[in-house]
Amino acid sequence: MSETPPDVERLTATGAEAHYRRLEALYRSAPVNRHFESEIEITGPGQARIRFKVEESSYHAAGAAHGTLYFKMLDDVAFYAANSLISDRFLLTTAFNLHFTRPMRAGEAIAEGRWISGRRRVMIADAHIIGPDGEEAARGTGTFLRSHIPLSGLSGYKE
């Protein structure tokens, strides 16, 4: 990381932790997440991790996880890594580049994301998934735009 994360100067240690916990609550509140057994953790400024379960219900016809599962977890973890540095606004995904490296089958997997660059309006974060077999299953890079939506106005963003 060559740049200083955007809001790091504004967030005190206590304020940052509160922001992280509110982002985790926001993740849990999203209706789409009721379809996935997953848990998020903001692990530090510009860093996030999602532990999730790959289930046969997410398989394509050839017996491995469908790409929608890869995309969802990579996009989410990169988004939350980037939004951990922005305390006032919700970010929007404007682009995501995904590379599949191996199929995933049933079991526990981990997606990890980290902020790479961006300070004001556009943020870039990357992510990877370690599949149930312990090997990298996918990686990607997302571009996120600061929206006009205040985080404080979202019902899920609460302590």
Task: List its salient traits.
single chain, 159 residues, alpha+beta, Thiol Ester Dehydrase, Chain A, six-stranded antiparallel β-sheet, 2 helices, 6 strands, 21% helix, 39% strand, HotDog_dom_sf, Thioestr_dom
Explain this structure.
The protein has a single domain, classed as Roll (Thiol Ester Dehydrase, Chain A), CATH 3.10.129.10. The two termini are 30 Å apart. The longest helix is centred in the N-terminal third of the chain and has 17 residues. A hairpin with a 2-residue loop joins β1 and β2. The model has no long low-confidence stretch (mean pLDDT 93). The chain has a 6-stranded antiparallel β-sheet. It is 21% helix and 39% strand. The protein has 2 helices and 6 strands, in the order αββαββββ. By secondary structure, it is α+β, with helices and mostly antiparallel strands. This is PaaI family thioesterase. InterPro entries: HotDog_dom_sf (IPR029069), Thioestr_dom (IPR006683).
Shape: globular
Q: Structural class per helix/strand content?
A: alpha+beta
Going by CATH, the homologous superfamily would be Hotdog Thioesterase
Please give the CATH class: Alpha Beta
User: Proportion of β residues?
Assistant: 35-45%
Find the count of extended strands (DSSP E, 2+ residues).
6
Largest beta-sheet characterization: 6 strands, antiparallel
Distance between the termini: 30 Å
Rg (CA only): 15 Å
Helicity range of the residues?
Answer: 10-25%
Strand order of the largest sheet: 1-2-4-5-6-3
Order of helices and strands: HEEHEEEE
The structural domain count equals: 1
Q: Please, how many helices?
A: 2
Mean pLDDT: 93
| CATH fold-level name | Thiol Ester Dehydrase, Chain A
Low-confidence spans: pLDDT under 50, at least 5 residues?
none
- Which second-level CATH architecture applies? Roll
